[in-house]
Amino acid sequence: MQLAVLTALGVGGATIFGVLIGFIFQRVPHKYNDAILGFAGGIMLAAAVLGLIVPSLEEGNIWITVIGILSGAIFLNIADKITPHLHHVTGVDQETHSESQNSLNKVMLFVIAIAIHNLPEGIAAGVGFGSENIGNAITVAVGIALQNIPEGMIIVSPLIMAGVSKWRVFLIASFTGVIEIAGTLIGFTAVSLATAILPFALAFAGGTMIYVVSDEMIPETHSHGYERMATYSLILGFITMLIMDFYIG
């Protein structure tokens, strides 16, 4: 139990660590911001396939995985419609249809996607400890933590540029890490239930990640004239996650 708690704090803390790094480099030129975002997009894309969708197939069957992916994408699409109602969380008073409003919509959608996929990721780590497969649980946790650092980093700059205060940025971004801590503990304490829902939950999370990479991250990195650098950065991010999965997984 102690190891599971430490792991929960580790995977959730990785996001917060990334947030702190993001504060150090919160205002960077579009050229480098697009490269970082592209790299993180590649990591998220690889993580969606290797860390979520493939394990979903291994734990369940193709139709559970397909339904989970589509459900995740549709859910995030619906979330895109309700994000204007979530802006009180950011403390930003904006006029409807303004450019900053649209920018904040995109940022909040991205934060929602990260928060959603962190829960089944945490459950995946917790299930390993609950089933006493400690080696596998540690491997999953390390992979999740490494992925969470750039996720935390790339939340900071868009929120600040949208007019959100630094204190609220820290709370909003850290919340995504807290969700992962909760997921790990849920997976550990309810391993039988988690095992039953895990295939769908993993595919659902994978669907949200693919949706947000395609709908938000790629268009954003291709809108400032640095699309070639962003494309290669995405590929490098994908390769990085692929290598990590090969050696750690």
Give an overview of the whole structure:
There is one protein chain. The protein is built from eight helices and no strands. With 249 residues, the chain is mainly α. It has one domain. The longest helix is centred in the middle third of the chain and has 32 residues. It is globular and about 50 Å long. The two termini are 23 Å apart.
Summarize the structure.
This protein is an all-alpha fold and 249 residues long.
Helices and strands, in N-to-C order? Answer: HHHHHHHH
- Strand percentage lies at under 5%
Q: Which word captures the global form? A: globular
Taking the sheet with the most strands, its summary is: none
SSE topology:
Layout lengths: L1 H23 L5 H30 L2 H21 L16 H32 L3 H28 L4 H24 L1 H31 L5 H22 L1
Helix pairs in contact: 1-4, 1-5, 1-6, 2-5, 2-7, 2-8, 3-7, 4-5, 4-6, 4-7, 5-6, 5-8, 6-7
